[in-house]
Amino acid sequence: MPGENLSRDEAQERAALLSVDGYEVFLDLRSAIGESDQEPRTFRSVTTLRFRSAEPGATSFADLIAPSVTALSLNGKDLDPAEVFDGTRITLEDLAAENELVVDAQCAYSRTGEGMHRFVDPEDGEVYLYTQYEPADSRRVFANFEQPDLKAPFRFEVRAPEGWTAWSNGAGELVDGVWKFAETKPISTYITAVVAGPYHYVTDSYSRTFDDGTTLDIPLGAMCRKGLAKHFDADDVFLVTKQGLDFFHDNFDYPYPFGKYDQAFVPEYNLGAMENPGCVTFREEFIFRGKVTQASYERRANVILHEMAHMWFGDLVTMRWWDDLWLKESFADFMGSFSMVEATRFTNGWITFANNRKAWAYRADQLPSTHPVTADIRDLEDAKLNFDGITYAKGASVLKQLVAYVGRDAFLDGARRYFKRHAYGNTRLGDLLSVLEETSGRDMASWSQSWLQTAGVNSLTPQVILNAEGRITELSVVQEAAESHPELRPHRVAVGLYRRTPEGELTRYARAELDVDGPRTIVSELAGEEAPDLVLVNDDDLTYCKIRFDENSLATLRTHLGDISDPLARALCWSALWNLTRDGLMPARDFIGLVLRFAGRESDIGVLQMLHTWTDSALTFYAAPEWREEGGRALAEGALRELRIAEPGSQNQLTWARFFAAVASSAADLQLLQGLLAGTAKIDGLDVDQELRWSFLAPLAAHGLADEGVLATELVRDDTASGKRHQVRCLAARPSAAVKAQAWASVVESDSLSNALVGATISGFAQASQRELTAPYAPRYFAAIERVWAERSIQIGMDVVKGLFPHLQDDQGTLDAADLWLASHESAAPALRRLVLEARDDLARTLRAQACDAAASS
């Protein structure tokens, strides 16, 4: 990684000096197939880059990460690559007013998901290629100026192996054996794309006639590996795509500007998806090989619409530097849910947002590395780490609050002006605030200062005073903030009062919407109302905050949480209770008890799945060690009970089956899993398909009941890329010192595994039931991570540093070891220190929560 970084100061200096007229890029990818002893395997990349310099005679540089450069010329003069290329940069001296740089290089195929990723399908031996660049990996494929504010038109040509198809941002055609693509509009380097291989490709079309009589026709395409074609429900992908295009055309008043719209579902993808205009890439796990719940289809729809929103927020108008990453990611995250709820069948999307996306934001905003939504991004390593819960989910939550603050019409009108004013340009925070001030009449500077330029999450707690007749004399909302981030913000909130009906339901009988500001706000509108059983601050989830409860409301939830009739209100209560558990204010065993009592009544499948995730974390990390075994037995018994009573064939049954497998540990539980796999046991309606088989095999492997032979046999049954990942994870999960040593070496001491198999190995390595077995690796972790960070790509470095931190060695000794590493490595890469600091903070939170839980037993 040293030498590959780029600072904000360097980027600003280069942007002030240079402007780019266009790129012509030729890639010869025929080397992707066939036997090769070459290491690394490379392809030819020829770039012609035309640009201007504001200062003739000046010196600058172009970016390129490549094993070698064959030839270089600047303005017709040949340059010696050995003198001007250092492996990451090309020095450009004595620039003219107008310049032409030609670079003929050998670039390396990637196995880490960065740059030009090469995947060999174990099922049929076919090779598939795709690119992934954000934030700065296009320089691994062609020479360029790798920063978002040096936009330019791109024209790509690709020579691919015979029988392959290639795609890029523009429409393509095969001419004399070369795929030639239409020139793009001015876009940033990181959103250019190439996909090539024997992909299964399905087409459709979208047409829209606007009020002025003009018609827009957009060719649609969707692709996946041939091995996944039988599972590919392209019709549903196209349905959501068309619904999204209709929604954005209705609300943005700016026609989709990039011609065609291809969507490629690709293997071993590091992200959820990437918004390359005209050629969006997705992780292929969004093609479902087995039965999944509606939550999975909702998640895919949300991602499709998130990436589509980027066509305007991010691609048409792009942030100048990564400081304002939120200008695209926060908006896309918000618009993904906004459009999904209003334009598709997934009308309960705000429940998922409140329960799932915000949980990510709350966690990130309480880490020592939390930052304002508008962050201070010093360099590319900072940028890579800031694709986080703050930039995405908190930013989206803040925008949801902004819509409540300025009104929907003013918000959308501001977006429309923003697109028209800055089309194909680059912007900063002030550019957006200015149009919102115009459309809303609100003071956006003070709002921005509170919500975008300060970090931390506030807590809102109701206080209720009743008179002798049992009516509310005074209801107030108390706002608190952490000492480290003391900002008290203005919140637009709804406060709901709930009480039990004669039928036993908890329903809302009164509501007030108001502005909460400062440490205490009186809710005068609710004075005189009858005494509530539950006061829900932030009812309807208008603002971003942690909800707390008064004592009476908390007592009501302990006995009647499942009686709340409104699914969003219920989801908000679950989220609040989880935050209490994470903060060490509610014993983990109490949260687990609530899940055992009420989760079976949860109607929203996404909320149920989130509850299972939280409960597993509560048992693994937050429960007192001496209670874990008892708690695990109770969870497994409860999960099996719910599994048996769930409607046969329902998504609830499938969800409880997966959770039961995750918590199964007793001999009887594991024997049942073995029987379900063998077909000797049966639960009515439960179809044990291939994906569920792997879910059952994982705990069996971890408990020593599925050895290498069993897993090899299962791979024969499922000899696919997905099957290989599952097998590798299960192999690493086996309870053997030799297995752990092999897994550790394959990830930490070797770079032979692809990104997907690195992730699978790490996932299998650390098992909650194997704390003693992995304990020796805690000191080895701290000894190795600086070397790993220096030697490996940033993606693999992040995977190793985050994934192998000894979270399961949850004692003071591990916390002290983390503190010692941080104290003795002050000069380590800031991004590496941030990852260790975050993991250290998670461990400290674990110990506090365990102390809270232990106190509950005394």
Walk me through what this model shows.
It is built from 28 helices and 28 strands. The protein is α+β, with helices and mostly antiparallel strands. Strand 12 (172-175) and strand 13 (178-181) form a beta hairpin. Strands 5-4-7-2-1-10-13-12 form an 8-stranded mixed sheet. It has a 5-stranded mixed sheet with strand order 15-16-17-19-18, with helices on one face. Helix 14 runs antiparallel to helix 15, helix 22 packs antiparallel against helix 23 and helix 26 packs parallel to helix 28 (830-856).
Descriptive key words:
858 residues, alpha+beta, 8-stranded mixed β-sheet, 5-stranded mixed β-sheet, 43% helix, globular
Secondary structure class reads alpha+beta
> Biggest sheet: strands side by side, in what order?
5-4-7-2-1-10-13-12
Judging from the principal axes of the Cα atoms, what is the shape? globular
Please give the share of residues in helix.
Answer: 40-55%
Strand proportion, as a percent range, falls in 15-25%
Q: What composes the largest sheet?
A: 8 strands, mixed
Let me know the number of strands. Answer: 28
Mean pLDDT: 96
Oligomer: single chain
Low-confidence stretches: none
Q: Helix segment count?
A: 28
Distance between the termini: 51 Å
Give the SSE map:
Elements: H1 8-17, E1 18-28, E2 42-53, E3 60-63, E4 68-74, E5 77-79, H2 81-84, E6 89-92, E7 98-108, E8 115-120, E9 127-132, E10 154-159, E11 165-168, E12 172-175, E13 178-181, E14 194-197, E15 200-209, E16 215-224, H3 234-252, E17 261-266, E18 273-274, E19 279-283, H4 294-310, E20 318-319, H5 326-343, H6 349-365, H7 380-385, H8 390-406, H9 408-422, E21 426-427, H10 429-440, H11 444-451, E22 459-466, E23 472-480, E24 491-500, E25 506-516, E26 520-522, E27 534-537, E28 546-547, H12 551-560, H13 567-582, H14 588-598, H15 605-622, H16 628-645, H17 651-663, H18 667-678, H19 690-702, H20 708-717, H21 721-733, H22 737-749, H23 755-765, H24 771-774, H25 777-791, H26 794-803, H27 812-824, H28 830-856
Parallel strand pairs: 1-10, 16-17, 17-19, 20-21, 22-28
Antiparallel strand pairs: 1-2, 2-7, 3-6, 4-5, 4-7, 8-9, 9-14, 10-13, 11-14, 12-13, 15-16, 18-19, 22-23, 23-26, 24-25, 24-27
